[in-house]
Amino acid sequence: MMLEEIPAFSAMFGFIGCLLIVALSKILGRWLQRREDYYRWLRSGSGGGEQG
Question: What is the pLDDT at residue 44?
Fold first, then answer.
């Protein structure tokens, strides 16, 4: 039996794919997130950047 023969397979496949994309983006967002004062800390640290 081919998967395309299942009623509404394309809709279910698309919905599940969308859910996976949202879940992956949330995981990546938490992993890549910076602290709220990241740039303030970077300027006051030993970065040697411009003050101000």
Answer: 73
The DSSP call for residue 29 is H
- Summarize the chain as % helix, strand, coil (round to 5): 65, 0, 35
Nearest 5°: the CA angle 27, 33, 39 is 175
- The pLDDT of residue 25 is 96
Distance CA 7, CA 15 (A): 14
Question: pTM here?
Answer: 0.59
